[in-house]
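User: Working on a comparison across species. This one is ATP synthase subunit a from Desulfocucumis palustris. Can you predict its structure so I can line it up against the others?
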Amino acid sequence: MRGLEEVHEDLDFWGFLHLGHHGVVPTPIGDVNVKTLVMTWVIMILAALFTVAATRAMKVNKPGKLQLMVEEMFLFIRGLVYDNIDYRKGAGMVCLLFTLFLFLLFSNLWGLIPTMMSPTADINTTLGMALMVFLLVQVIGLKYKGLSYFKHFLEPVPFFLPLTIIEELSKPITLAFRIYGNIYAGEVLIAVLLGLFSLTVTLMGGFLASVIWLAFSIFVGFIQAFIFTMLTIAYISQQTAEHH
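Assistant: Here's the predicted structure for ATP synthase subunit a from Desulfocucumis palustris:
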């Protein structure tokens, strides 16, 4: 059995580990994980190509398989939005939330391909997305409630203000670490399983032997993309709800 470092060396087909210090390059604004950056751009391109390919020749009477797949995902996300947010307020967010779900789904599954890596297996990616969701929720709260939005920090009594602030700040942290922990753990376990088999002949040897765990990882990838999106919808719903 080989160690994790040896497995990562075998999977470093693109030579990312040789850039900087184990793939991390210092820049004026901080350290950058080159592999995460590259894989994020790859995911964005793949997601864009996927949606363009699925919708460029849309047919009503006889839709293609890709079109049906995208339509079902879009209708699923739209249904979640309209079930939790008023139609007038949620209609403009459907495309944003669908894009969020699609990006997370592609990101979670991409790391299951040998030599590739899930951008969501890097805490910097998930924390960045969680902070963007957090800021979006605050902006939406101010948009629909004005300055009265800050009243919920003082409820039920001002004495609980510190606890309310901690609760609010915990939302992006839990969002980020939930998806990061699951995806990163999945990739580590795949690397452990690959370490049980020889990769000297072909990478597919260990890949096929891990098919059961890969199937479970695909399920986890879908679930984590759904949970992140659903929680985002729930947070937005809280700020757009009209309390009487």
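For your comparison, note: The first helix runs from residue 4 to 11.

User: Helpful, thanks.
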